[in-house]
UniProtKB/TrEMBL annotation:
Keyword ATP-binding among record annotations: no
Catalyzed reaction equations: L-histidine = trans-urocanate + NH4(+)
Pfam families (UniProt xref): Lyase_aromatic
Entry EC number(s): 4.3.1.3
Pathway: Amino-acid degradation; L-histidine degradation into L-glutamate; N-formimidoyl-L-glutamate from L-histidine: step 1/3
Name of the protein in its database record: Histidine ammonia-lyase
Length: 496
C-alpha cells in the first residue's frame, strides 16, 4: 500500500503522480500535523469564547465583513456559507482532479493556520482514502477569494449533501455515507470558510495539466524524430556546439534528445547532401520545443509552492496573531497556467507545420501527395492535416491569457480577481488538443517512414515505430481515421 504522509510542507507533483498511479494509495496526517491542527483550533475556540471580532469567525463574509454574528448563529453561519456558494455550473471536473483538490486542501489544513477541528481533517481524509469523490462543476470560480464555488461543492458533501462519485457511479452523498456507516459532518465555527478560501481547484487541475504536458512534450521529440527521418532531415542543426553557444538548458536538452533519437539512422542527411538547410519546423526543433520545456520549469515551481501554501483567510499564527490577508488570490497560478497554455500551444503549432511538410507534395520530397496510395482516387492524409490545423487554430483562441481579466465582485469589496481556474481549464483543453495534433503527426509519420523504409530507422525510433504501429495501421487505403487518432492519442496520454 502506498501511503502519502501530509505535512503541509513537502508535497510534490511526483508524489501526486505516484498517488494517482496506485489505486490502493492512502493519505495520512502526521502526529505533528494533528498537533498543529489542534493548536490552531484552540485559538479559534478562545476567540469565540472571548467574543473577539475576527473575519469569518464572528462576522459575515465579503461585503458583510462588518456584520457581527452572535455565538448562537456562528455554526449555522458556516452551513449557510457552503450552501449559498454551491452555484457551480457546467460539466464536472474529472474525478482525478477532484481527488487532487481534496489532497491539496487537506495538506493546507495540516499547516495549522486554518483553525479547523481534527474531525474535519479526518472526514476529508476518509473521503480521499475511500475514494468518495464529490461532483464539482468546473465553471463559476473567479479565482479569488479562492475557488469558492468549486470548493463549496466539495465541502457540502462532507455535510452529507450534494452528489458524489463512488465505485464508478454518481450517487447522492447521503446514500453513500449511509452505506459506509459514515456520519455527516456538522461544520463548526470557521470551518466552512476554511474549506472554500483556497486555490485548490486551479492548482489541482494545474498539477494534472503539468503531468500531461511534461509527458507529451517528451513524446513530441521522438515523434518529431520520426518526421525528421521521413523527410531526410539534416542532423547538423542539432550539433551540440550550436546549442551550447546559446546557453539555454532546455534547448540543449532538446537537441541532445534529438541526437539520441536519430543516432544510427540511415534516413537522415548532412548539410549539402540533399539540401543546405531544413525548414524551421525541422531545423529549429530544439529552439522551439526547448522554449516550451522552459515553461514547465516555471509552472512546476509555482505549483509546488502553492501545493504547500497557507491560502486560507484569516490565517491563525498565535492567540494575538490572527490576520486577514489575501493568500487565497490565485494570481500566481493564473499566470503559470497562461504560460503553460502558450508552451503547449506552440508544440501543437510546430507539429502541425511538420504535418503539412509530410503531406504536401511540394515539400515532402519523394513521398506521395498526401501519402495517398492512389493519388486522386484516394485522399490519403489530406484531411488529417485539416483536423490538425483546426485544433491549432482553436488553441490560439484558448491561449488568450485569463490572468489579465478581472471583474469586480461582492459589491466591489473583491475588486480584482485572478480567473485562474479558467486559465487552468483552458490549459487542459489546449493540452488535449496538443495531444491530438501529435497523434496526427505520429499517424502520418508512421506511414511516411514505412514508405521510406522502416529498416533504415534509427534503433530508438524503430522501437517506437514497432510499439505504435500496433495501435494504428499503415495508410494503405482511405478509411475512417478518427479512431486511429483517438487510439494514438490515448496511447500517448500520461493518464490512461
Amino acid at each position: 500500500m502506498t501511503v502519502l504522509e501530509l505535512t503541509g510542507e513537502d508535497l510534490t507533483i511526483e508524489m501526486i503522480k505516484d498517488f494517482l498511479g496506485n489505486s490502493d494509495a492512502v493519505v495520512e496526517i502526521t502526529e505533528e500535523g494533528y498537533r498543529k491542527i489542534n493548536a490552531s483550533r484552540k485559538i479559534v475556540e478562545n476567540i469565540i469564547r472571548e467574543g473577539k471580532t475576527i473575519y469569518g469567525i464572528t462576522t459575515g463574509f465579503g461585503l458583510f465583513c462588518d456584520v457581527l454574528i452572535s455565538k448562537e448563529k456562528a455554526i449555522d453561519l458556516q452551513a449557510n456559507l457552503i450552501r449559498s456558494h454551491c452555484c457551480g455550473v457546467g460539466r464536472p471536473f474529472s474525478e482525478d482532479a477532484v481527488l487532487v483538490m481534496m489532497i491539496l486542501r487537506l495538506n493546507t489544513l495540516v499547516k495549522g493556520h486554518s483553525g479547523v477541528t481534527a474531525d474535519l481533517a479526518d472526514q476529508l481524509k476518509m473521503y480521499i482514502n475511500e475514494r468518495i469523490i464529490p461532483k464539482v462543476p468546473e465553471q463559476g470560480s473567479l479565482g479569488a477569494s479562492g475557488d469558492l464555488a468549486p470548493l463549496a461543492h466539495i465541502a457540502i458533501t462532507l455535510m452529507g449533501e450534494g452528489e458524489v462519485y463512488y465505485e464508478g457511479e454518481l450517487r447522492q452523498t447521503a446514500d453513500v455515507l449511509e452505506v459506509l456507516g459514515i456520519t455527516p459532518l456538522a461544520l463548526r465555527e470557521k470551518e466552512g470558510l476554511a474549506m472554500i478560501n483556497g486555490t485548490q481547484p486551479m492548482t489541482a487541475q494545474g498539477v494534472l495539466n503539468y503531468i500531461e504536458a511534461e509527458h507529451l512534450m517528451e513524446a513530441s521529440l521522438w515523434i518529431a524524430a520520426l518526421t525528421h527521418q521521413a523527410l531526410n532531415g539534416i542532423t547538423d542543426a542539432y550539433n551540440e556546439k550550436i546549442h551550447a553557444s546559446r546557453g539555454y538548458t532546455a534547448q540543449i536538452y532538446a537537441a541532445e534528445r534529438m541526437r539520441e533519437y536519430l543516432e544510427g539512422s540511415r534516413l537522415t542527411t548532412r548539410q549539402g547532401e540533399v539540401r543546405v538547410q531544413d525548414a524551421y519546423s525541422i531545423r529549429c526543433i530544439p529552439q522551439v520545443h526547448g522554449a516550451s520545456f522552459q515553461t514547465l520549469e516555471y509552472v512546476k515551481d509555482k505549483l509546488e509552492t502553492e501545493m504547500n501554501a497557507a491560502n486560507d483567510n484569516p490565517l491563525i499564527f498565535s492567540e494575538d496573531e490572527v490576520f486577514s490577508g489575501g493568500n487565497f488570490h490565485g494570481q500566481p497560478i493564473a499566470i503559470a497556467m497562461d504560460l503553460l497554455k502558450i508552451g503547449a500551444a506552440e508544440i501543437a503549432n510546430i507539429s502541425e507545420r511538420r504535418i503539412e511538410r509530410l503531406v504536401n507534395p511540394a515539400l515532402n520530397g519523394d513521398l506521395p501527395a498526401f501519402l495517398s496510395p492512389e493519388e486522386g482516387f484516394q485522399s490519403g492524409a489530406m484531411i488529417l492535416q485539416y483536423a490538425a490545423a483546426s485544433l491549432v487554430s482553436e488553441n490560439k483562441t484558448l491561449a488568450h491569457p485569463a490572468s489579465v481579466d478581472s471583474i469586480p465582485s461582492s459589491a466591489n469589496q473583491e475588486d480584482h480577481v485572478s480567473m485562474g481556474t479558467i486559465g487552468a481549464r483552458h490549459a487542459r483543453d489546449i493540452i488535449d488538443n496538443m495531444r491530438n495534433v501529435l497523434a496526427i503527426e505520429l499517424l502520418i509519420a508512421l506511414t511516411a517512414v514505412e514508405l521510406k523504409g522502416k529498416e533504415k530507422l534509427s534503433p530508438k525510433t524503430r522501437e517506437k515505430f514497432e510499439e505504435y504501429r500496433l495501435v494504428a495501421d499503415f495508410i494503405e487505403k482511405d478509411r475512417v481515421f478518427s479512431m486511429d487518432i483517438e487510439n494514438l492519442s490515448l496511447a500517448l496520454s500520461a493518464v490512461k
